């Protein structure tokens, strides 16, 4: 009896949200389904011009035609967002409505039920969707990595190449490569699923806790780029619903940190747990010190959580005062056209939350529920989002200024009028009454705010106060300030006002001050004139050998990254001329190119200026002689004091500032040998080691020469 050979299978995978440009990241469910087919010997189809001899799978896009769809044996569709189904693209409509094709379609995802209430069947839909793939009849004919049948979504390794052809095509015709970095540079997964908060607008509204889901190894990609020898996906991003709610948060966080790869939580973290958890301080400290990728993002969804949020912010900002922190602000839920009071309350609570965030130096990111479209003046949600979600505007303009700036831009660039500047609301209203805007009209943002204030005149004063709030005027670092505590020789010392009043001349306090400086525990002193003067006075009195003994007490080696190894062409440019130029140029936020230009001794190309400025600004910051943040530098108090010293005084202080550099401390605490130095440099490539060794030697020699002179 002749056994009939099975025909080759062709499987299509559809990212429904991608079809209508509703997403900038890959669909994780599809990546895992693709990985499952790959593991079962299916070949990823990359071109119609190639003949495939076995089973295949492929990503379907809007380019797919009807005849081609008929050739598929199975089509898996994943839809995350409900708005995709509100106005489905043509391909998706065809898949759902054509009888010949629809019977081949396996469709799932939160998009079809996320907005349903419990009464409307949310629980049943959610349960069905969460287990749909593991109950899929076709998938259950194939084997998983454990040897059984059926896909295990928890442990299935994604196929990160599913979108390769789509991304390559789009980079050529539409978007820049940076737009698609989520598809190319990240390992993606969930370490936990679920949340205990039960927010009514969330797909986790029936969950009761955060449960372990995947292991990190289940989705961590280790593929190496053949051209560069580096990881193809050097970053990690996680979709966890409420990571910090898991009792295993620390164990999983340590595992993420141990990869040494930058990581981030895309859905935000629950800031309230930093206030509520008995180990909230540890949470904040660990996260703030981790190799986190991008901005830290939390959520402030409800005004009634303000006390917890404020308590958590005091902790968080103490441990993370410099890194950008954003908060998702949820709004627009259950809005209707006729409920004016609910609408005003929602807008007021947005601004009250923004006020809290401004005071703590955090940025809001507006997240609108689709119900916002039903609000009496729905466009105000759009304008608030445009203001908040663009940090450059939010940091520099109030909401009123932002809306009026749209008007000035329109008048200047569309109408060709000369514009004098931004007007206050009162100035605008005076011109409005005189008929100025009757002639030219109002742009949409200004019209929206005007209509809102006119409609709700009884609360105009309150809303105007909100609309005039300014980030720069509201931020108050004293809200999260704490007196630094220093452990030295088994004793704890608090650097409070009494301490600072009795530093110079008090041997114990002098050593505590040096301990705080060299452990980078009180970096704020470098921007404070009085504290920096005390530090400089103490530095003058202590030898390098004495400072090393202070550093040795309780020393823990620093983790050194490639960027931490100094690079410069002229050491004096770094330690003297950079702080001098910053002080004298009168420019705020000096960038690399500007500093390179200021340090010019002879004409250079712009690219050379930029690199020169970068290297010398960074080295200056390593010495504690300038304030460096986000690729820009400003003068600090210590640098201003240093450049006023005599040349002989600078020569005495410079080696002591060299000891402020973490890798230099590691070198001397490790034995100060060539082997220790080479071990520090070993994190660099061989060619980079050669270039930077002389720079490192210069800094080390500066310290060693001073110590020999002390003898």
What does this structure look like?
The chain has 711 residues and is of the alpha/beta class. Among the domains are: 1-161, no CATH class; 356-477, no CATH class; 483-542, no CATH class. Helix content is 46%, strand content 10%. The chain has a five-stranded parallel sheet with strand order 2-3-1-4-5. A three-stranded parallel sheet has the order 6-9-10. Strands 11-12-13 form a three-stranded parallel sheet. It is globular and about 90 Å long. The model has no long low-confidence stretch (mean pLDDT 92).
Q: What is the helical fraction, as a range of percent?
A: 40-55%
Per DSSP, what share of the residues sits in E-state strands of 2 or more residues?
5-15%
- The radius of gyration over CA amounts to 30 Å
Unreliable segments (pLDDT under 50, ≥5 consecutive)?
none
What is the helix tally? 34
Q: Total number of β-strand segments?
A: 17
The backbone outline, from C-alpha atoms, is globular
Distance between the termini: 98 Å
Short description:
The protein has 711 residues and is of the alpha/beta class.
Index terms:
three-stranded parallel sheet, five-stranded parallel sheet, 711 residues, alpha/beta
Give the topology, please:
Elements: E1 10-15, H1 16-19, H2 28-39, E2 43-44, E3 56-60, H3 66-70, E4 74-78, H4 82-86, H5 90-97, H6 99-102, E5 105-108, H7 122-130, H8 164-173, H9 181-184, E6 186-189, E7 192-193, E8 211-212, E9 235-238, H10 249-258, E10 263-265, H11 272-276, H12 280-289, E11 296-299, H13 306-319, E12 325-331, H14 340-359, E13 363-368, H15 379-388, H16 391-396, H17 399-413, H18 425-433, H19 436-440, H20 444-455, H21 460-467, H22 471-474, E14 485-488, E15 491-494, H23 497-501, H24 507-518, H25 529-541, H26 544-552, H27 571-584, H28 592-598, H29 606-622, E16 626-629, E17 632-635, H30 637-643, H31 647-658, H32 662-669, H33 674-681, H34 686-710
Helix pairs in contact: 12-13, 17-20, 25-30, 27-29, 27-30, 28-29, 31-34
